[in-house]
Automatic annotation (TrEMBL):
Cross-referenced Pfam families: YdjM
InterPro entries: YdjM-like
Name this polypeptide is given: Inner membrane protein
The keyword Lipid metabolism is annotated on this UniProt entry: no
Membrane-crossing residue ranges in chain numbering: 21-42, 62-81, 88-107, 119-136, 143-164, 176-195
Record organism: Motilibacter rhizosphaerae
Keyword presence, Isomerase: no
Top-level taxonomic group: Bacteria
Length: 216
């Protein structure tokens, strides 16, 4: 195990060195902006362009969900791209996997709430996962990430299609917000990522200057 960890550290160090020599710097801002552009392309060009069948529409929608979730994680949990990448991956998977509850609808076994999405597309699902996280300390990080992933799914669903029955079983009314508000929130999050990147780069410049001036 120690040898594997040591090998992993050496590989990461070598990759970082290659990136430094090549002058390549990964920009979270560029990534977030590209993801936002993908959401706009998805919702305003590809999906409305034709009447897609469910097997073809689903991947387009999942792409939008993954892009939305990644933007939120980059803005709100920047550590998700580093030390907590495994939990971030779990959240991303959950942000798409929750749509498995649509299968009974498509098979005609049940109806959605108010003619829309299933009852499991409500706050009850992440609350159940959060309760399980409290009850199971060993699985708490994973279950919390899954709960967060479901909430990330709702960020998009609340502004697309028929909306989301968030308050089931208290209410079966679908909550639907304007798509423009959804896009504005994502744009604000991208701006937040950009502001953080800019601040980090400015803070790193004096440190680099000091290292250059140190005597050999």
């Amino acid at each position: 195990m120690r040898d594997a960890r040591a090998d992993g550290e050496r590989l990461r160090s070598a990759f970082a060195a290659v990136r430094t020599l090549a002058g390549v710097r990964t920009s979270r801002t560029a990534l977030a902006a590209a993801l936002l552009a993908l959401v706009v392309l998805d919702d305003r060009v590809l999906i409305p362009s034709r009447g897609w069948s469910v097997p073809l529409l689903a991947p387009l929608d999942w792409t939008g969900h993954l892009a939305t979730s990644a933007i939120v994680l980059l803005a709100v949990v920047p550590a998700a791209v580093g030390r907590r990448s495994r939990l971030a991956l779990a959240a991303l998977v959950a942000s798409v996997a929750i749509d498995v509850d649509h299968v009974p609808l498509y098979l005609g076994w049940t109806d959605g709430v108010g003619g829309g999405r299933p009852a499991t597309h409500s706050l009850l699902t992440p609350l159940v996962l959060a309760a399980a996280a409290l009850a199971l300390p060993r699985a708490r990080p994973l279950l919390a990430a899954l709960a967060g992933g479901v909430l990330l799914h709702f960020v998009r669903d609340v502004a697309t299609g028929p909306g989301v029955p968030l308050l089931v079983p208290l209410s079966e009314e679908n909550v639907l917000l304007p798509w423009s508000l959804y896009a504005a929130v994502l744009a604000a999050l991208v701006a937040l990522v950009g502001a953080r990147d800019l601040r980090e780069r400015r803070a790193a410049r004096p440190a680099r200057a000091l290292r250059v001036r140190e005597p050999v």
